[in-house]
Amino acid sequence: MPMYQGRDDPYSVLPRSEALLGGEDQETRRLSGVLHQQAETHSPGSSWARWTSNGMGDVQLEVRYELYTATAGASGRAVAAAWLDDRIAHAEEHFVKVVEVPRLGDAAVETWTVAGYEVSVRSGNATVHLTYGAYGVRSGTDEQKQLQRTARRVAALAVEEIEEANARTS
Prior knowledge:
By secondary structure, the protein is α+β, with helices and mostly antiparallel strands. It has helices spanning 26-34, 76-93, 142-169; strands at residues 36-43, 46-52, 59-67, 99-100, 107-113, 116-123, 126-134.
């Protein structure tokens, strides 16, 4: 069995996911005025943060970054791709419609659930999983479209944050 050295794994560090709402982007600045950090955890291979509004959960955002490194049998990029395939298979198995999101990382999909939008992104050997929802938003409304746009924007910012963190270390 070949030993993968991670030559095709572009990322070696993860930023802290809780820093995502601290940027200069207008969309996230608006969110940071509504949401308050509820919990977070960070390690070299994973970072997770959750924000809610007023501690009541009317609006919630959860972001998880994962960094995959090469193993004896696969590159980190291949493991991250398998993770995204598993997310898609799990959603489809439960009859949840999965939609590809163009121009977001190497591959991205989203689903609309009762909890809101879930966006799963693979970029190199890193993945981002984001859930963004608001209580009482109904399907087919302008509010749902705004949730979708915001979830996609925040996911794109998360990918940019991972790319920038790795550009600083190289």
